[in-house]
């Protein structure tokens, strides 16, 4: 009995699963049936009746028959086939043959997709045909208006087009047979071919419009504006040459002759409507002419510059030569008292040699100006370079002269600095002797002796003949550094001695009660009398800090106040 129940449950489950799957397939069949009905009842033939408003000849008639045959095949063949396949699929589903049903459903979807593609193709081609007819009708009228406008322009302004008139008229008259061809194609129902004619005519009309706009402008440049500029340049060249300007380097005559020949060539190209090559070349020619105007103007400006600055440059050159000779003599005199580095001592001599070369260069420049066989622009460049070289030498000589004058000033400053250093060292020695200290450590004595030695070195260097100020300055710097260190260490030592004395005095109150403090203070006193002040300060400070933490800071402040009062006094 138990096995029978299990078998029944399994069979029941399989039956329920089968019902669920069959339901899904039924849903698919319903969808496919609906899609088939949409195709079957789509009003294609109603859409095709739109064609009847056109000329039912030629291409239009062929396309109409082609579309009708395609859709007849869809309805009479494919839809009937789909109905049969739907019936087969339903039988497979009822018999629970779901795999076969799936295969049939997939085949139906492929048929429906093929029918949908045919429908979309017919609609698309139909819209294109009808749209072409409408666009053709509108655009051909616009093109005809452009054609009439172009003919009117050519008739009204024939002179403006010059040699290009004939070619333009031919291009414009080519529209007439194209209009006739368009009309024939339209009457014959060949709207798509007529569309191609319209597109070609539209492009050509744009080109014609561009030519009608550009040709008169370019022709005006070739026949009027550029020839006027050539005439003006020739007159300008002649007038400048009469005024002794040298212009051969510009090769202006050759350029203008070649340009006049080229204008004839460009005119011939324009007669052939070759605007694309003529227009950019004319722009280049205009730029070239402007450049020649600039070059002629540059020559005028250069002449004015040369005439104005030539004499001034000569005067400046003469003055710099004179000053450089004086500085050279001064350098010889100064070298008897002061040592000059070899490279500096050669500055006046080198300047004179350079000035000699510049004088020759300037004389050649003056000769070229008088001969009037050189371009003023090149003469200007030469004069500018000469002036810049003169100014550079002038600056070098002035700087050198200033250094010579500063030697005496530097010597006096060095002697004053030496006196100042001597006073600092003497004051440091006086403070050490005046201070209440047991004695001066050997290290401090050595520092003082070194400072005295540095003073002696400075004195000796100031007695050299000739005087080497670089060496004096170096010795002064060494002596100053050494004496500053001596003064600093002396003040520190005096301050430490006072601090040791005050700390020991303060620590005496704890000697009787604290043996360790007493021992440290004894060591401090011993080091103090041996001039070991750093050691003495460390031991005394350690002793007082042991007995009374923080006392050292108060003692240091008291000592600083005392030192300040002494310095004020």
From TrEMBL:
InterPro entries to which the protein is assigned, alphabetical: EzrA
GO biological-process terms attached to the record: division septum assembly; septin ring assembly
Coiled-coil annotated spans: 249-276, 369-431
Subcellular location: Cell membrane
Superkingdom of the source species: Bacteria
A cellular component annotation (GO) from this entry: septin ring
Pfam families for the chain: EzrA (PF06160)
Chain ranges on the Cytoplasmic side, renumbered to this chain: 22-569
Membrane topology classification: Single-pass membrane protein
Oxidoreductase is among the record's keywords: no
Keywords: Cell cycle, Cell division, Cell membrane, Coiled coil, Membrane, Septation, Transmembrane, Transmembrane helix
Transmembrane segments: none
Main localization category: membrane
Function description: Negative regulator of FtsZ ring formation; modulates the frequency and position of FtsZ ring formation. Inhibits FtsZ ring formation at polar sites. Interacts either with FtsZ or with one of its binding partners to promote depolymerization.
Family: Belongs to the EzrA family.
Protein name: Septation ring formation regulator EzrA
Organism of provenance: Ureibacillus chungkukjangi
